[in-house]
Amino acid sequence: MLHNMDNTPSSPGKSKMEKRTRWQTSLQKLTFWSILSMGVIYFVFFRAPSSFTSDTSRRSLRTYGYGGAAWEKKIRSSAAVTSKNGVSVLVTGAAGFVGSHVSIALKNRGDGALGLDNFNDYYDPSLKRGRQALLAKQGVFIVEGDINDVSLLKKLFEVVPFTHVMHLAAQAGVRYAMENPGSYVHSNIAGFVNLLEVCKSVEPQPAIVWASSSSVYGLNTKVPFSEKDRTDQPASLYAATKKAGEEIAHTYNHIYGLSLTGLRFFTVYGPWGRPDMAYFFFTKDILKGNTIPIFEGANHGTVARDFTYIDDIVKGCLGALDTAEKSTGSGGKKRAPAQLRVFNLGNTSPVPVTDLVSILERLLKVKAKRNVMRMPRNGDVQFTHANISYAKREFGYKPTTNLETGLKNFVRWYLNYYSAGKKADQ
Ligand SMILES: NC(=O)c1ccc[n+]([C@@H]2O[C@H](COP(=O)([O-])OP(=O)(O)OC[C@H]3O[C@@H](n4cnc5c(N)ncnc54)[C@H](O)[C@@H]3O)[C@@H](O)[C@H]2O)c1
Ligand SMILES: *[C@@H]1O[C@H](CO)[C@@H](O)[C@H](O)[C@H]1NC(C)=O
């Protein structure tokens, strides 16, 4: 734009220079300055933001087409309650692994469920589209948009007065934080605050259940992990943003009376799972004959995870929703103390990663090429183990699927899904 000044029509040609009057000179100056300032305004408002923000936030700033009678009708029908005492739930991250399973479970028992997801490409978006198609068949519509879009969120609450929000949208994964830290701040902190801002000001305020993570236990060595243990030594930016979420939840509960329940999931796995997780890419690599890296701790210490099957996690999510009390604020003000909870949702039986690989070898009938190596210090912790007695007491949470059974279901889904001509490459 700035180089356009060279051919500004009002610039007189060289041959006419001598005839130039004082008036012409000032006109020329005026033109020069107005074009320069237009250029500056253009740069500041339209160009500069993109040079300061990450790819993810730029992607999320794109405007999604929404609105209109047909769109609102789809939303109302998706959120419609069909059972007595049913609730209507806005599920963020509904095209994700956990969100898609929770949405279907809600719809199946007669609750209303509307999805919201930005379909970002952190992992293969075609998997998200596949889940979306599955949800559509069950009558769950996913609005395509970002949790940072305040006017979209407000609009959704105008169309449906949701009783609950199941907030699962987040930037997940611990290692990716070193590549794209901004995406964690964008979704897990800024996005969460935006969502809570809208929730606190709508009438009536919904109750909110949201996903924290077992990663908040960080470098803790006392096991099993209990909710009252310290959570002030995160080992990754991901964990730090989830911990920040728990503190932010405290604030919104304290000031505005929002009912908030945080769920610390422990390594969730199962059909329609996440391709960035070890059980998923181990399966892909074992089948391809690729070597898989198996981490060990210091002094050949065992790396183990409290793997939790998706159906057990879904039961925990529903239990938390069903026991969530109403928010107490109105008119943007707290009227009485409101519920604030945090629960572990794990399986209570950690399995060494080497055992995970052995189970996969058996199920896939292929021997894995193992490359045992020292765990790099890039966010992973050596061991996780949940104490789930609090969730058991509050809503009878009781995981029933062991790793062997759960992986069998996962492998069956995987072989079926990827033999249908889809690639597991991304
Ligand atoms: N899967 C696990 O083992 C595990 C463990 C602990 C915590 N969690 C948490 O549980 C939740 C669900 O995890 P998941 O495994 O289903 O992950 P996922 O990545 O499959 O699902 C998250 C979904 O949120 C969407 N999303 C991300 N940022 C968004 C934004 N700004 N606006 C709108 N949508 C956005 C993504 O497109 C994705 O579909 C996350 O909060 C995650 O941090 C998961
Ligand atoms: C598990 O947590 C409960 C509190 O919810 C506590 O009373 C109990 O001692 C813990 N169990 C273990 C084995 O740490």
From TrEMBL:
Bias (Polar residues): 1-13
Enzyme class name: isomerase
The keyword Iron-sulfur is annotated on this UniProt entry: no
Region named Disordered: 1-20
Pfam families attached to this UniProt entry: Epimerase
Protein's membrane topology: Multi-pass membrane protein
TM region positions: 30-48
SUPFAM superfamilies, sorted: NAD(P)-binding Rossmann-fold domains
Binding partners and assembly: Homodimer.
The family this protein is said to belong to: Belongs to the NAD(P)-dependent epimerase/dehydratase family.
UniProt name for this protein: UDP-glucuronate 4-epimerase
